[in-house]
Amino acid sequence: MSKIEVDAIDKQSGSTLTLGGSGTAVTLACGATQTGFGRTGTVDWNTTPKTATFTAVSGDGFFANTSGSAFNMNLPAGSAGAIVSVADYAGTWQTNNLTVVPNGTDKIGGATGNIVLDTEGQSVTFIFVDSTQGWINTMDSTSNVRANAFIAATGGTITTSGNCKIHTFTGPGTFTVTATAACATRNIMSHVIVGGGAGGGVKRGGGGGAGGYREVKNPVTPYTASPLDGYPSAPNRVTVTATSFPVVVGGGGTAGVAASPICNPASTANTNGVASSFGGITAAGGGAGGGTGTPTGGGAAGASGGGGVHEMSGRPGPGANPGGAGNTPPVSPAQGFAGGNACQPEPAGQGGGGGGALNAGVNGGDGQGTPAGDGGGGATSEINGSPVTRAGGGGSGARPNGRQGQGGSGGGGPGANNAPKPNGDPASNGTNGTVNTGGGGGATADAHPSTSGAGGSGIVIIRYKFQ
Prior knowledge:
Layout: E1 44-50, E2 54-55, E3 60-64, E4 71-74, E5 83-88, E6 98-101, E7 115-117, E8 123-130, E9 134-141, E10 152-154, E11 157-161, E12 164-169, E13 173-179, E14 188-194, E15 213-216, E16 238-239, E17 244-248, E18 257-258, E19 276-278, E20 281-283, E21 379-381, E22 388-390, E23 450-451, E24 459-465
Parallel strand pairs: 1-3, 2-4, 3-5, 4-6
Antiparallel strand pairs: 5-8, 6-7, 8-9, 10-13, 11-12, 12-24, 13-17, 14-15, 14-16, 14-24, 17-19, 18-23, 19-20, 21-22
């Protein structure tokens, strides 16, 4: 390789000096600089983000991080060909603006004064042309290509709590994820899923069992969860992708009807509640309360078991009609508890309360000073921004003038006795479980005709961080 060393190169004639030939690249050695050629319309990007007011340097580009607060970028003194670029580092200019401040009397776009950059993901390039127009914006991108910081979704009734969105489904629907978050942990949904509560039994029957209660609290969505938070066990979690997820909200079990004398079969049997589900997680329906003449006899098994029914003359002996088993099918944490057993001896035995999310139903009293069985208590969560208790068991029916079983906290319906009711309803009717709580229905008293309480429908609530 030959080498030429000179102090200056100039043309011999004419007005054009040519360096290199066709197809030959002319390069500057590493570390060399040039003057006189002018800029090519690009900048050298400074990759240390600015987090407070700074003064730009011509020829450089800057990343302005306003996630902490808004601030200014001061332009250098204008000279023809000066160039400055700036980009939104964190995608936060829409909330914390970047203000561009010209030097002295320099103009921006022909006007004297500051400009505000307030578009998320914006990037801008300014070139100083002359004193008339000053700095002119030659490139303005109102978006940039970056992974989503948070998920976006539709479906149900949407509310917010702090930095979280909450989708509440009180009936069947679809939870559609339109964008997932770059951080995998943010794609795990906090959720409460409650199945439908069961109907109460008839003729001093057992209370209806509550619908199953399933909850997962992702730590990135802060709120006070119930003791049944299943997040530590990975199979309980729902990790979403950008697709649609069917949501099933189970209905409450039907009421039982006693239309004939006390020792004859019921006209219509009460039934179990219906399961709710989301993302592969299912909360089962509650077990029907036991009743004289119902197909179940004793309380039915379910997410929470139905209360047992008392022994009657000509019926199976003591212990034959106990409360139904809870947590059926089994999951961990348990989705509910067993129904209470009946107090068997005649003529004063009374049914057991339906099981709830946190407690078993209370055993039935003997009707001689001890009350009928209360429903088991439900679980309390603040997933939707305020504490709400769901999945309480239904109360059992009482002997004449005895104290009926109370509904468990969380929507369980109380049972009935034969005393007149203030609202004018027939004294022997049970009370429905509260809708969208999964509460079990209350049982009837002795009198006929009478109707037990139907179970309350379930609910599905989904929570995630959106900002």
